[in-house]
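Take a record.
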Amino acid sequence: MTFQFTPIALAAALAAAFPVSSAFAAANPVPEAAAVVVTAARQAQAPADVLADINVISAEDIANSGAVSVADLLQQQHGIEIARNGGAGSNTSVFIRGSNSVQNVVLVDGVRVGSSTTGGASWATLPLDQIDHIEIVYGPLSSMYGADAVGGVIQIFTKKQKGAVRSVVSAGIGSYGTRELNGGVSGSVNKELSFSIKAGHQEAEGFSVTRPGAGPYSYNADKDGYKLDSFSASANYEFGKQAEVGAQFMTSRLNAQFDSGPSYDDRNVQNQEMISVFGKMRVNDIWNTHLQLSQSRDQTYTDASYGKSQIDTRQDFITLQNQFQLGKDSAQLIAERREENVLTTTKAINGKRRTDSLAGSYLWKQDAHLASAAVRYDRSSVYGNNTTGNLAYGYRFAEGLRLNASYGTSFRAPTFNELYYPGYGIATNRPEKSKNAEIGAVYQRGDLELSAVYFRNRATDLLVTAKVCPVDPVTNKYGCAYNVNQATISGLTLSGATKFGQLGIKASADFQDPKDDTTGLQLARRAKRHGTLSADWTEGNWKAGVETVFSGRRYDDVANKNALGGYSLLNLYTSVQLNKDTRVLARWNNALNKDYETAKNYNVTGSSLFIGVQYGY
């Protein structure tokens, strides 16, 4: 396996130029600002008490990054790879720990988002400027979130503000005709009522997403740009310390060009919405209850050389969550209903399905011991019943040092396409299932944070596309998606961070073997080696940093015929705090103009510069 190490070497040289006194280990810890995390156990926990491998991207990380999209931000995190058919507005897949992009759950403020037809989240429609912070939990979490939480869960928290009412504005310009303008107002009207309203616009002229190798019937040399408009609002009212009610709403509209023919102006117009209302009550000294009604919607209109289509998927949720504080321990009981509705121009896949779920969990703390247990039962109106569970144990051997071990089961539900799409879906397809075991060590003392995790995730009944399509015994029709493959993804993740005065260093390295056990081949678009290295220097109101990302050889197809070469990227950024409210930042992505592919015959962003100003952030 061959790597392009030039940016890595340059980054190391830049880091070495700063006056450090000792070597560092590797990286991506929970920042100090993250006093609690909530995704791993669906309740607030101190990061030191979380037994899963977690990562928090803080508001400061996002503000300093100058990143254009959520995918750009995620690419810098350990255990995550991305594949994208072009620039920031293009179709994007996110792989966690080598799992498929549809084997992950994505939440926005506790509400699941994504398409019921394709199974994945629409990453390009998530507006980065509306996001406060992101929590990533690695490993199976079906015992907490049900179907699809095989590789992990990514939860996005939108911006909210308490205290004095304040305004925020940001604007920026960049390469490829990139332009941004965002603004909002948030704060507290009084002690009880707080609110937030934000809106944003982003656009780029872009570049041709396809390469000539895509062939004469797909390649188009024209520029493929995009426009993304977003709006979010929230309001909370607190009744002292006993109760709280609130509502939140987020919507975005992406109009993105792509290529499917030599001369046609192909476009995808995607709308994503999320709305929820909730109430929280402290029933007594040990019992808190939380009721949430929510809905997410994913709509796509496609106008391409091969025709026009409309896909509208909607998910409705009712969640009742009860938490019981038992001394240092806590227990939870959760009841959920999820209803998926699909309406498309392909009438065969239209329909609905309902999933009713019951879950319980227990967190135990005793001296140096930590443990957790969770179990969940999901009953689907279409694909049957599934029971999943998770057990984890941790022991603090010394100050700052803890060893963890866990075992969990999970499953992925077949999508509407995999069940009903004409000539592809098979109505009798079963859920994919997996069993994951892992052990890890975490060390945190002062500014030094280290983590090492070894995992082994074995999946069965994987849904694959058959070369020879079998006959569905129910419909007596041919279908190409069927349960046959098995896969084992094992790997070691090393991460950590440290500070030496004004110098901060983070790094991570993922060594994994994403293997299709049925064929013995490497799973598509997933590398065996992936890593990051970054360093930043703060001097008064000025901050500068360097980031590198490197990835090993991958394959674009399950047959491992179309290789995607390894690559390494160098990003540079700097920011200056002009006063307490105003900051100017600049970011230079892919500074060495590396030519690489994350999807065969699709271009990626070359060397690009972005300059912006932020007020009130």
Residues 282 and 288 are 4 Å apart (CA to CA).
